[in-house]
Amino acid sequence: MRTLTIPTTPFGDQKPGTSGLRKKVVVFQQPRYVENFLQAIFDTVGPARQGATLVIGGDGRFLNREVVQVALRMAAANGFSRVLVGRGGLLSTPAASAMIRASGAIGGVVLSASHNPGGPDGDFGIKFNMAHGGPASEEASAAIHRRTTTIDQYLTLDTPDMDLDVLGETRLGGAQVVVVDPVADYAALMRKLVDFDRIRALFAGGFRMRFDAMSAVTGPYALEILERQLGAPAGTVVNAVPLTDFGGHHPDPNPVNAAELMVLMMGPDAPDFGAASDGDGDRNMIVAPGLFVTPSDSLAILAAQAHRAPGYAAGLAGVARSMPTSRAVDRVAAALGIPCYETPTGWKFFANLLDAGRITLCGEESAGTGSNHVREKDGLWAVLLWLDIIAATGQRAEAMVRAHWDRHGRDYYARHDYEEVDAAAAQGLMQALRGKLDGLVGQRVAGLTVSACDDFAYTDPIDGSVSAQQGVRVHFAEDARAVFRLSGTGTVGATLRVYLERFERRHDLPVAEVLAPVIAAASDIAEIVRHTGRQEPSIIT
Ligand code: VG1
Ligand code: CO
Q1: Is the pTM of this model over 0.85?
Q2: Bridge partners of 450?
Q3: Bridge partners of 454?
């Protein structure tokens, strides 16, 4: 066994986005591309990596196994003394976060492009999570990126691939590599947060549910927890085997991509509860019989009801939502008398608030919900919390949503994505929009009156760091809001996201009707058709 120092030259495109580095698989297949980025991560960790523990795992997509092997050799060559890797190279993002925290690791390498499609023609991704278990901060991500621009060598070993399918410890250079059960510790953590006996009794009483793992990493977790430990009938979890191409699914749980689940839940034979998760297991979609629950509403309902679960019996210290997430959770926070923070899009912005104990629960409109148990969003956890609340209250999911709206009112919500728009045109749209902000207040557009607008900037209340240009917010006097930002996870061209919401006390109105003026005003203000050439969004969720 020898340590090899391999000379390399930088790639110009290794800037992490909203959640790590995501590119087409063919980009990652270029010689030295993976190695450069991993070495940049290890260089950024610095001398502290000597003798430290590292966690490695991924969502099982195409390239996962190969890159795990590369990462193991490089971690050993770089001086880590202990490397924990999920069996088969698998770890869901929340399980990786939990493992980093429980093992005292200095961080973790999570291989995933999350909700992006997989397979040889799909996407791959590498994220680095820090010692608190959460995504690399803005500062750490910038440092990794800077390092990729000057990198001139990487370290590895001349060893063969390891067997990742057998649990146990093996020596690799100076490191002890431990292949761990990816599910066991995670399941144990869930048992501390929600009442498994109560949920088991719910299923024993005939409660029916469908969980769609979308052929991604949550399958093994959901099978073990829902079917084996909680006694849900066999077949509750569908698409449970992680496939390298997700079986052709787009593992982004929303009503469009989880169409089969939606058809079932809207039909006459709907089970009592429906849920789905994404590629790396950190997102959740919740569907009640006959009623899709928007992620923003789900966050608000969980915030209002979490105290019923043992892990949250003491109540919530505070809550947070990403800026484009609807204000439904703000209303709950106000009713509970707890603070509500508004952060930029991306889970990295929640970590400081969670670490400081300012918040207990947080979430995003993109189907991410989480709590202080890890530093990532956690798909299956959200589903279990819903189940525990249903078990504790005896209330049906759809009744719970309606009761919530009765009390707090309803934030009607939709997101319009314009995918694969020409990047320069998308930048042009945002620039033109920013240029307009000064004269916008007081204008009447599509029957609405602009009451405030800005380009969202966030000052982290814990470390004082400032993140500017996080999306344009336009508020209307009619208790409505439109938000515009460009995606930081796409790999082709640019994706414009337009987030639309409007508050009404009445909750029985058609969503399209309530939002129509907001959609029209947003389109006018941003001149979407002129800039993008698109008459319609590519996807509405
Ligand atoms: C999207 C979502 C964002 C989420 C991010 C990572 O980012 O909007 O809310 O945190 O994906 O989620 P963007 O920049 O494309 O809007 V995951 O589950 O794909 O890691
Ligand atoms: Co994800």
Answers
A1: yes
A2: 476
A3: 473
